[in-house]
Amino acid sequence: MTSIWTGHKVRVRGIEPEDWQAFQHFDEHSAAMRNADMIQPPRSAAGYREWAAIQATQQTAGDEFLLAIEARADQTLVGSLSTNNVDQRAGRFSYGISIGHDHQRHGYATDAIPLLLTYMFGERRFHKCEVDIYAFNEASIALHRKIGFQTEGRLRDHEYFAGRHHDLVVMGLTIDEFAARHPLAEPHQHTQPTTHPDEPTSS
Predict the structure, then answer these.
(1) Pairing mode, if any, of strands 164-174 and 128-134?
(2) DSSP-based three-state secondary structure for 133
(3) Residue 77 · residue 70 · CB < 8 Å
(4) Kindly report the CA angle at 194 between 191 and 199, in degrees rounded to 5?
(5) Cβ 141 vs Cβ 150: under 8 Å
(6) What distance in Å separates the CA atoms of residue 38 and residue 36, rounded to the nearest whole number?
(7) Global pTM value
(8) Nearest CA among 129, 196, 132, 137 for reference residue 170
(9) Nearest Cα to Cα of residue 191 among 81, 114, 129
């Protein structure tokens, strides 16, 4: 049995102290940083080292966590994946994914997202996943549609950056919708997710 955190192209793992340089390099590309969250002030190398060391040793806070995405071909760190807005009562959660600028359009996000969803739906008993995507990020919206997400709404002028307000697209996916495209594996086996050649910028 292979790990449920291993796909065709990537392995999702915990952050290691030595990952700090890769994360520093990722943050040098402002558009990728914005698509992942928002543009932050510059951080020193010492700051990145301290951050990575803390991430590598701190305990997971329930079902909210941050993980690294590693390419299986050469063990290169290519991005990160995190869960947030966890609502245990309603069985709902959100996530964010960021692929470094140099590693986009290689199918890494397409491979990594179903690994996370398989865990959250199949092991943690969540019922629904919701994601918020900037309306201009058409590649990420298209990817999520392929995975099975449905567009649930559009929040107008909801976020502000680069001198103006931007719309936010809200998409959702239930466990049944996910399982219809990515069957959850039986306990004695692990079926790796289907991959697609398309790759979003990030969400």
Answers:
(1) antiparallel
(2) strand
(3) yes
(4) 140
(5) no
(6) 7
(7) 0.86
(8) 132
(9) 114
Q: Judge contact between 140 and 107, C-beta under 8 A.
A: no
Q: 126-141 burial string, b = 16+ CB within 10 Å, else e?
A: bebbbbbbbeebebbb
Residue in the structure block whose two tokens are 């390419």: 71
Per-residue pLDDT of the chain (203 residues; tens, 9 = 90+): 489 999 999 999 999 999 999 999 998 888 777 766 778 888 999 999 999 999 999 988 789 999 999 999 999 999 999 999 999 999 999 999 999 999 999 999 999 999 999 999 999 999 999 999 999 999 999 999 999 999 999 999 998 988 899 999 999 999 999 999 998 866 555 445 444 434 444 44
- DSSP class of residue 182 equals S
Residue for token pair 């071909």 = 73
